Amino acid sequence: MGIIFKHASGRASSLLARIRFLRMVEYDITSLKIVVHSDSEELQLGVDESYTLMVSKKNEQSIVGAATIEANTVYGALRGLETFSQLCAFDYLTKSVQIYKAPWYIQDKPRFGYRGLLIDTSRHFLPIDVIKQIIESMSFAKLNVLHWHIVDEQSFPFETPTYPNLWKGAYSRWERYTVEDASEIVRFAKMRGINVMAEVDVPGHAESWGTGYPDLWPSLSCREPLDVTKNFTFDVISGILADMRKIFPFELFHLGGDEVNTDCWKNTTHVKEWLQGRNFTTKDAYKYFVLRAQQIAISKNWTPVNWEETFSSFGKDLDPRTVIQNWLVSDICQKAVAKGFRCIFSNQGYWYLDHLDVPWDKVYNTEPLNGIEDPSLQKLVIGGEVCMWGETADTSVVLQTIWPRAAAAAERMWSTREAVSKGNITLTALPRLHYFRCLLNNRGVPAAPVDNFYARRPPSGPGSCYAQ
Amino acid sequence: MGIIFKHASGRASSLLARIRFLRMVEYDITSLKIVVHSDSEELQLGVDESYTLMVSKKNEQSIVGAATIEANTVYGALRGLETFSQLCAFDYLTKSVQIYKAPWYIQDKPRFGYRGLLIDTSRHFLPIDVIKQIIESMSFAKLNVLHWHIVDEQSFPFETPTYPNLWKGAYSRWERYTVEDASEIVRFAKMRGINVMAEVDVPGHAESWGTGYPDLWPSLSCREPLDVTKNFTFDVISGILADMRKIFPFELFHLGGDEVNTDCWKNTTHVKEWLQGRNFTTKDAYKYFVLRAQQIAISKNWTPVNWEETFSSFGKDLDPRTVIQNWLVSDICQKAVAKGFRCIFSNQGYWYLDHLDVPWDKVYNTEPLNGIEDPSLQKLVIGGEVCMWGETADTSVVLQTIWPRAAAAAERMWSTREAVSKGNITLTALPRLHYFRCLLNNRGVPAAPVDNFYARRPPSGPGSCYAQ
C-alpha cells in the first residue's frame, strides 16, 4: 500500500486524495483479492514462488471487479504483489493510481530457485538499516537470497556467544552485529521472501579471528590460513556454526574455501612438523581443513556451499551434497554439474558488482546455463548470484554500486532463457532497465544511471532519470 | 525511539531486548521528561530553538531519575531530542543503551536563525521519498530551512493549478510534484522543525516555463529571460505564487534573479521596441522585472529573497525588506547589511556542495560574519546555506554529495563563533565529523568518507567508518 499509494499518503493530503481515488473509475483499482493455497510459511531453497495475476478489463474506461493474485505459497503471492505494484502507476493528470495496459493475465514463476546477492560486511561494516535497505531493494527485483559474507580477514563484526572474544576483531566497538541484530535481519528478509545464507570463509580470509583468539593464527607472522593443526581451530568453527544455526534457518551455509594461500603454513615450524607427521602436502592440509569444516556444517543439518577452488582442487573428495559457487573460471559450473554437484553461477568477469567497468548489457547477456545442454544437468545449476564485495563499497556507495546492474542479472535469472536471449536488448531490455532504475529511485533507492560506462558514476549533466 | 533503540527494535528480538534493557542500570535511561513552555506550533524565521538538557549522575554506575529537556517551543525540544539521541549509544557488551559521559547540563541555542540547504529539482527530479530522506538527514545536523529550488530552465516539475500547462515542462509525465506532494513535504519538514522556502527564479533560469506557455518566451530563438513586455508573464508569476502561497507558509519566498543574460531581449523585435518605448536599457528592464515580481510576492504577504546580483545591480531600488542571498562575491553580505538589507551567506567557493573539490575543512572554516564587526550589522546576517545544485547530483548521489560536508557548515552556523574558531580543527572538529558521518551511516544516510579530497568519492580500500 505504501508503495502503490505513495501520492495519496501523508496526513495533509490523504483524505482529499482518498476521496478522489474512490471517485475515479478509469482503471482504478479499489480491491485486490489474494488467494494462497498453502498455509506453510517455510522459506527454503526451491520454495514455490509461482503466481497468477489477473486484471480484467471491461472497456476502455474501467476494469471488472477486483484484481486477483493466486499462489501456492505466501512467497508466490509476494512476487505477484511486486509485479502488481509495478503495473500500478500514479497518473498525474487524473491523480489516481491506474493499472498500466489492462487487461492482464500473468502466469509467472522463476527460472532459478536461487537468485542471490552477496554483501560483504568485513571490508566495510554495513549498518543494520543499510542491510535492510539492500534487502528491501532486492525484493523489488525478486532476488531471493542474501549471501551474507559476514567476516573476512579485515574485520570480525559478528557476535559469537560461544567465543565472545571473536568480535574483538571488529573495526571498532560500534561496528558490530549482535545475535539479535542478525535475527532481525533474517526476520526482515523472510517477510520479503528472501533467505539469508551466512558465510564463514575458512581457512583463508580469516585473519581477523585471531584478534580475539591469537591461538588461531599459526604464528604472529602467519595469521592466515587458520591454524590447521589445532583442535581449537575446529572447536571455534563448531562454536560459531552452533551459534549461527540458531539464527540462520536457511538450509545452505557457505564455508568459503577460496584463495587459500598456504605458503606460510610451510614456514611455521609446528605446522610444518604436523604436515610431515601426517605426510601431508599443504594441499592435503587445505583439503583436510575444508572437509572437516564441511562435516561440522553437515552435523548441524546444513548443506555446505564452497567456492569453486575446493572443487578444482579436490572435487572428488567433497561431500556430494556440496553446492559449488563459481567465481573464477567460466566453465566451472559445467564441470561441477557433470560430476553431480549443484552449482551457483557468479562469474567475476560479469557478475562481480565491484568490477565497475562491467556495463549493464554484459551483466544481462551472461547466461548461467551456458554450455550446459542436458536438462538433467541444467537442473543442478540452482541459480546465480551477483557479488557486491566491499573493498571500496561502504554505506556511502553500496546501493548505487548494486543498482541498476543487479536488476539485469535478476531478470536473466527470473525469466525464461528464450525471453532474455532474443532480439536486440538495447530495444527490449534497456528501456525496462531505465524504467526500473527510476522505479528504484522513486522508492528511495539511489540506483545509479544505467548508461554510464562505469558503475555508480553520477550523471554527466542535467536530464531525466528515464534517459540517463 | 526508533533512532535510540534501534538494536532493541524488531519483532523477533524486542521482548528479550526490552526486558534486558529494563534490568540494566548502568547509565540506562528509562524515562525522559520534556517540558515545553509555549503551545504555539508556529514555525517561522527566528523561532526559539533553545533548549536545556539535564542528565544527573548518581555514581559511576547510574543516573538519577529521568533525563529532562526543557524548551520554550516544541522546536527547541526537537533540537534537544536530537542532542539527546546523539548522547545515547548502544553498548555492545552490556547490550543496553547508555548515556555517554553523564552527567550533562547543556544549555544550547543556535547562533543563526536561518541554517539552510538548497536542493535543485529542475536539473534532476528528486522523488518525494528522496526529499524526505534529505529533510530527515538535515534534522540530524539541526539545519532548519530547506531551500527548494523547484524549477529552472531544464524542467518545470511543479503542479500549478492556475496555469496547468506549466508542468508540461517536466522531464516526463512521472517526474512531477503535485500540490499534495508539496504539502506533504512541507508537513514532513515541519514535524522536524524545518521550514521550506520555495524558489521561483525569474526572469532568467526559466526556459522550461515556455513548454506549456510559449508566449512566455520572447521568441522561439530567445527562450529566456522571460518576456518582460507582456502582462501575461506577470499574470503567470502571480498565479504560481498564489498557488504556492497555499502550500508554503514560511515567511520567506525566493524570487531568484541571478545570472540574467538579457542579450536576446535586445535581439527580439517586440522586446526591443518595448525597451525603446520606455527608454529602458536591458538593465532597466531586468530591474523592472525583479521589482514587479517582488511586489507580487509582497502582495501575497511574503518577504522576498533574491540572489545577490539584484543587489549589485540596483540595490537601492530593492524593497528594503528584501533578503539578499550571497553566492558569487565574498563580501556581498558585508555590503548588503551596510545598506540595511538582511543577508544569507552561501559563498560558492565554500558552501556550494556541487563544488566537489572543496574539502570539509574549507567548508568548516568559512565564517558568515567575516568582515562584519558591528553587532547591529551582524544581526542582519540571518544565517547561511549550503547549496546542492543538481546538474550532476541526482537521486543516486545527492545524499553523499551533501554529507558529510553540510555538517561542517551546520556546526559553524549553530555554535558560537568562538567555539568553532579556536584550536586546531583537525584535533577538535574532525573527530566529531568522522563520528557524525558514521552516525549518519548508522541511521541509513549514505554520507561519504570525510577524508577523501574529492567529495562523494568511495573509500579507497577496506577500513572503519570512523577512520575514513
UniProtKB/TrEMBL annotation, chains A, B:
InterPro entries: Beta_hexosaminidase_sua/sub, Glyco_hydro_20_cat, HEX_eukaryotic_N. The keyword Glycoprotein applies. It is an enzyme of class 3 (hydrolase). The keyword Cell membrane does not apply. GO terms for molecular function: beta-N-acetylhexosaminidase activity. GO terms for biological process: carbohydrate metabolic process; glycosaminoglycan metabolic process. Residues 24-87 form the Beta-hexosaminidase eukaryotic type N-terminal domain. One of its GO terms (cellular component) is membrane. Belongs to the glycosyl hydrolase 20 family. This is beta-N-acetylhexosaminidase. It comes from Arabidopsis thaliana x Arabidopsis arenosa. The lineage of its organism: Eukaryota, Viridiplantae, Streptophyta, Embryophyta, Tracheophyta.
